[in-house]
Amino acid sequence: MPPLRPGEPDYYETENFFDEDGQLIRRKFPEGNEVRYRFGEGSRAAEGNVVEFRRVADATRGGGEDLVETMTYEPLFNQLRSKTDPRGNASGFVPPIGSATAERYTETHSFDYQEHNLPIPDAVLFGIDLSAIPRGLGDLNGDGRTDQVQGNVILNEKAAVTLLPDSKEAERRGSTTQEIRTRYHWNDAGQRTEVVDAEGNVRQYLYHPANDPDGDGVAIPGSTQTGETGYPWKKIIDAENHPDRTAETPPLQITVEVYYNERGHPIRTVNARGVVTRIERNQQDDPIKIIEGFELTKPLETGEDPLARVVEVHYDANCNIISSETDNRDSASEPLNVSIDRTYTYDILNNQVAYSQEVDESESLTWLFEFSPDEKLVAKRAPAGTWITQILDERRLPLSVTQGAGTPEASTITTAFDKNGNITVIFDAEDNDGDGEPESTTVAYDGFDRPVRVTDALGNETTREYDVASNIIRKTTMGHPANSPDAPNILLAECIWDYDEGNRRYLEYSGRWFLDDQENIINIEIKDLEDEDNDGYVAVRSEYDALCRPTFEWEDDLEVRETVYDGANRPIAKIDAIGNRLDVDYDLNGNPIQMTRTERSSGEIVPDEIFTTRYVFDQLDRVVRATDNLGQTTYLGYDRRDNLVYRADPEGEPTSDPLGLLEGEINLPGNTVRWVFDGLDRKIKQVIDLRIGGTGQGNLDTSNLFNPDGQITLNYEWDENSRLAAIIDDNNNKTSFGYDALNRRTAEIRPDGTRYDAVYDRDNNVRKVTDPNGSVITKSFDALNRVIQVDIDRAPGVEGTTRETYGYDGLSNLTSATDDNGDEGDTITSIFIYDSLSRILEEQQTIGDNTQAISRIWSGDGKKIQEIYPGGRKISYTHDAIDRVTQVADESGVISAHAWIGPGYRELLRSLGNGTSLSFLNDAKDQVTGYDDVRRKTRLRHLGPGENPEAFIDREYGFNRANKQIRETRHDDFSQVNTMLLDSFYRTVEVIYDDGDTGPKRETIQTEYTLDGVGNRRTVRALSSTAVPSSVNFQVNPLNQYSQIGETARIHSANGNLTNNGQYTCSYDYKNRLVLVSDNATGNQVASYLFDCGNRRCQKTVFDPDTGNTISETDYFYSGPQCVEEQDAATGNTLVTYQWSPEYIDSCNQFERTEHHPLGAGRFWVHCDRQHNVAAITNSDGEVVEKRFFDDFGRMYDDLKNPMSSSGVSGLEFGFQG
Question: pTM for this one?
Answer without folding.
Answer: 0.95
